[in-house]
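Appendix B: a complete holo record

For completeness, this appendix reproduces one full record from the ligand-bound portion of the collection. The bound molecule is zinc ion. The inputs are the chain sequence and the ligand SMILES; the output is the full three-dimensional arrangement of the complex, encoded as structure tokens. No fields have been trimmed.
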Amino acid sequence: MKAIFDERQLRHTPERYFRRGAYMPHPEQAERAILIRDMLIKNQFPIEKPRDFGDGPIKAVHDPDYVDFWKDAYQRWRAEAPDQEPIPNCHPGPRRGRPSSSVFGQLGWWATDTSVPLTEGTWDAVYWSAQTALETAERVKEGERMVYGLCRPPGHHALSNASNGFCLFNNAAIAAQSLRTRFGKVAVLDIDTHTGNGTLDIFYDRGDVFVCSLHTDPDLYPTYYLGYEDERGEGEGEGATLNLCLKPGSDTDTILGRFREGLSAITAFGAEALVISLGLDMAADDPLSEVKLTGDGFATMAREIAELGLPTALIQEGGYLGPSLSRNAEIFLTASREALAG
Ligand SMILES: [Zn+2]
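The structure of the chain with zinc ion bound, as generated:
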């Protein structure tokens, strides 16, 4: 099983995260990807760099103006406010208006929250993270059974026209849209502990991409605003959304039970290809986790995903700097490789 990664994804270097009224060290650090990359090398997964597919496939799921804004947003902010960190503090909310011509207004317009401080290398990092997802999908379209995209920063919270939760470009949605050029019906299964709210939103009215998100109950835990079980899609997408919520404290048996509901639904949908939003932050010792998935639980998920027999793009999402991040990535990916070989 091949892995795709580009070192330019390390260039986003956020320092602080504003949470519940206080700053804390930003959890989404380049070290996450370095740890996983080193694990891939240790386990002899071949690592290849993505080709450059341009911004067209990113704009296939995102507002083109949103994509273009980020290209020089950091430089524009620095020109206006050289000593101040590029973090938005004005947000339009769901109401009429326009982005304005000011970088301060625009940054808030295209951001739902303050979780993506812009840094000098942010554009490079999110662009190559998206290209990594595209290369992963491309390899699957070319006939590889399963490919792992080490995407960083993550993507599944990014809406079509707004950043959210450490995410600017929705790598899983970009991969799913790319897979649609070869496969008629594509499913996204999101096993990150947070709601795949961006992916859900992007495909909510579409019947060709089934989105199942397994996550900690958004009534009690971020991302709060999407991911409730009565949300089932709308219009042509009616029935093509499935949210599976976990109570804080859920153990591995409970998590796997709900995970299997997702697998059954994907089979019933008739998916021809699969994107896994591979968050590792359900681990009990992840700094952001409120559920308790064990290493064996990750291995079971990997095996059961492989047993679906579908062409599969694994797209890295969350998973933070707890003691078991690298180990759980290793468990998941080696179990996937063994299941494919067996
Ligand atoms: Zn997460």
